Amino acid sequence: MKLEYRWLLPSVLLGDPDEGRPVRRSTRDWIVDIVVFVAACGLAVLTLPDLDGLARPLRISEQVFGALACASVWLRRRWPVTLSVVLTLLSAVFVMVGGGAALALFTVAVHRPFKISGIVLGLNLLTVFPLAWWRPDELGPLWTAGVMVLIVLLVFGWGIVVRSRRQLVYSLREQAKVAGREARRLERERIAREMHDVLAHRISILSLHAGALEFRPDAPAEQIAKAAGAIRESAHQALQDLREVIGVLRQPGEQGELLPERPQPTLADLPSLVEESREAGMEVELRLDVEQAPESLGRNAYRIVQEALTNARKHAPGALVRVGMEGGRGEGLTIAVRNKIGWPSAIPGTGTGLIGLAERAELAGGRLEHRRTPEGDFVLEAWLPWQT
Prior knowledge:
Shape: rod-shaped
Keywords: ATP-binding, Kinase, Membrane, Nucleotide-binding, Phosphoprotein, Transferase, Transmembrane, Transmembrane helix, Two-component regulatory system
Distance between the termini: 69 Å
Order of helices and strands: HHHHHHHHEHEEHEE
Number of helices: 10
Strand order of the largest sheet: 1-2-3-5-4
Largest sheet: 5 strands, mixed
Helix content: 55-70%
Pfam families: HisKA_3
GO molecular function, one term: kinase activity
Protein name: histidine kinase
Strand content: 5-15%
EC number: 2.7.13.3
């Protein structure tokens, strides 16, 4: 536990909550730890010539503490700060501990913030001078201390660079995750807008056919059968659309796989939309003076006309609806829908249709306006950019 060794060191050195926790090593961690252990052993072996001339007890002590220092590097992931402090203090007396102390300092620089690793660095720099005076090189203690200070700073700086790189990679990964979640959220919002337009259109047609049956119970059997078939078909299409949007909006990991998004309508499907509205009892005039448009542009134009026809069915049932569309590359696509203002039908509205159309037009880089004319008409006009 942490409290078992807090009395040994200043609390600022043990401020990281991960200190002392069990570590599960991956295959890569095992490889790195083996390399570090071999490196510690190699550094210890390089210092063996420095033991010449020492008394036998001191030489044995150097070898024992050097071996323990090499073995202790396996604890650097679990107790990096504690290990570094202990090895640093020992390196002030024993030369063979220096390699393990350097690797422990590197670990602290990589895995701990500077408020902790900086104190450990300061302790390493302080312990350089006793060893330099106790075991000086042939060139003197000042030269020895200078070389050791340079080595300590290089090891610490290397650790800081590795830590900064890891933090950068982690930050980029987090940004990518956030961007992915935002992209999924925007895509779901787009699908929700699409489904609002589609379902509102389907249900309004269904309501018109049902209303015709309600107000014309004495209609010929052929007309009743045709209206009933249209109701069945509209209800089936509405359920199919709803099933698809539920499948697309399903979160990953839930039961079932994401259903593929069906092909989106384009300008080529606009006559079929108008014909469907006519079969539901609407009077629609279509003037389409447009060459073949890009798929995204055609889809946006189709949805605008679809929502405009749905609004006309809701708020001006029985009124003539004139739909006009013209434009070309470079000049943009202009859409105009005009109908007389009549009595609203019994079909409830959410009040978000025109708002959704304005958002769709703005997202496409265009604009949408609607107004009432002095002649008593409701006019909806939209302009969408058409790149050359």
